[in-house]
Predict the structure.
Amino acid sequence: MTDSAVQGTTAANHPPFRLDNERLAFRFTATLSDRHGTPVERLPDPGRLDDWLAANDIVVGSEHATAADLDLAHRLREAIHRIGTATAREEAASEADRELLNRLLREELPLPELTETGLRWRPIAGHHVRGALGRVAHDAVTLLGGPHRDRVKACENPECRGLYLDTSQGRNRRWCSMNICGNRAKKARFRGPRAATGNG
């Protein structure tokens, strides 16, 4: 994908991050995109986890992610996506998924820090990467359990089903990103009649 909504750092042989979602937790779930089509894994190794945290202004200092951190990140990501999908469908979420978020939040919540340009989050010393993931869990818990949980939706692109918060006035937003899935839908509609004419 080459749309402007696909942003972030790009390491050799790795796809860029999608940073267009307004919510941190849902940006994190987008590190695995097109889940129901041809999945694109954007966190294939610990180094890319470091890159994603840096791209989202979460301080990790000199600490680098390990294979165990990456495994936790993947488990957290999938738990958030499952809970978010259940929320969008008005279904019950898995107790195990909820407990993973709650446990990480209790154990590893980082502290906010005021900077010249705004706010950043600094994990507690010695647990920087886990603390950074705790920040993601914090956003997920406040979003999926807060007053706006009824605005959580899953993208209508059947290959994507990415999560987003519908803040539109009429609550009629259909895509996780107009620049990506919205454009795909427009192109599909444009090709449809032409394809039908060509087959006639």
